[in-house]
Batch of 2 targets.
Target 1
Amino acid sequence: MPPSTERPLVRLIVGSVRPIRVGDQLAEAIAPIVAEAADARVELVDLAELDLPLLDEPRMPALGDYQREHTKAWSRIVAESDAVVFVTPQYNGGYPAALKNAIDFLFHEWRGKPALIVSYGGHGGGLSGAQLRGVLEFIGLELAGQNVELTLPRDGYDEGGRLRDAAAIVASHEEPLRAAAATLRRVIRSTAPAPAA
Ligand SMILES: Cc1cc2nc3c(=O)[nH]c(=O)nc-3n(C[C@H](O)[C@H](O)[C@H](O)COP(=O)(O)O)c2cc1C
């Protein structure tokens, strides 16, 4: 947590890495709402751009003895964030392998990290969010309130496979998203170290 005059840094992790996807559109639309409701600086972290290979650290990440530059870079991104928001689709009743891989690269960076889960899918991606919650609780993140579930209408896609109006879909879930972001803000405050006397 930065000094009390500075707003916390919240990073939105885009959990889909498909070449044609909608997760980036949804994250873009979610960002300003989270920024306002959590009174935070918000940045997107796109796992597609991060382009992590399948976990290739020789030693167990819990040991923190990272050998790969991409792991060190990813570690810094998470460690420097005051909170993270996982924006995840539902794939076959779970969350994407790329997201699990990115989570598994690190360990201590996650522990105690305030976090929020936003899932999406034809029915809100609830199974994905629930599965992700179980893993994040196991690792020891500080999850803020309920998961937010964004329902994507079947006719919401254009011919290229992108959302026609991601902002409208997110706006239709604005109330639970704002409530969850406000809870995230409280979790960030409650986990921040006390200022030096
Ligand atoms: C591999 C795969 C599995 C999917 N499984 C589900 C599912 O279990 N439930 C659901 O509602 N939608 C499912 N969908 C549809 C996704 O919700 C939809 O394609 C969404 O756009 C995926 O997010 P993305 O475009 O950001 O990757 C699946 C899509 C893919 C590609």
Target 2
Amino acid sequence: MGKPVSITAEVMLMDKWENYFADEGDIARIPQIEVCEFVTNLEKHFSERPLRIWDLCCGAGRHTVELARVGHEVYASDGSSKAIDLTRRWVQRAGLTATTSIADMTACPFKDISFHGVVSWDSLCHNTIDNIKKAVEEVRRHMAPNGLFMANVMSVSSMTGHHGAGREIEPYTFVHNDGHEAGIPHHFFDEDRLRNMLEAWEIVVMAEQVVSYKDTSKDTPRINPFSYSFWGFVVRRLA
Ligand SMILES: C[S@@+](CC[C@H](N)C(=O)[O-])C[C@H]1O[C@@H](n2cnc3c(N)ncnc32)[C@H](O)[C@@H]1O
């Protein structure tokens, strides 16, 4: 097992994401149904309009655009300048508005905003456990009372397939050696460690989606439409 990721390594890590977004063919364009359903529930949870929603680690902006399209006040951040550029351009092309910022997941760049909802899809787990915990605490600090946070993180059930591959840099965190996510860390959770991370929140729902891989050939993830095993959760900030 190697050393935990350092500050310098974090800067280099964001270079990996810049490379990832350089190939626009890899970019996810269709919003996750889970994110859309979460926002429908958020609309029932709060009567105020528009809702202030933070898309944390927004990538190329598929959820930012969707949330703005349904009329919410959207804030989007990502550590990759390329991702933020893609998001800004997509929002503009769609004739919508959203506030965007390049920022590490551990520091909210939208200082005076308290959010009704925060979404973070396929992102939190790309870090070491200490940084993931910092990011989750940062979300809690910027959440309105009763606000809801929805995210997914990779499950240890994925470790039997491609997603346990690579170099273990700390317990449960692996950096891929090759493939289009080379150099990018993946942290895997089991239920106990996920509950432990969320202990400051009320857990509204926590569910594991388990996918069993039969074909684990190296290049599969690039074209694999069947997702990996993950834990999804919705948690509420206590008033
Ligand atoms: C797999 S993409 C998911 C993007 C988006 N949430 C979606 O569902 O399309 C992961 C995103 O996390 C961002 N990311 C990874 N590590 C980060 C960090 N430490 N701080 C901020 N963003 C980070 C990457 O730049 C990338 O946009």
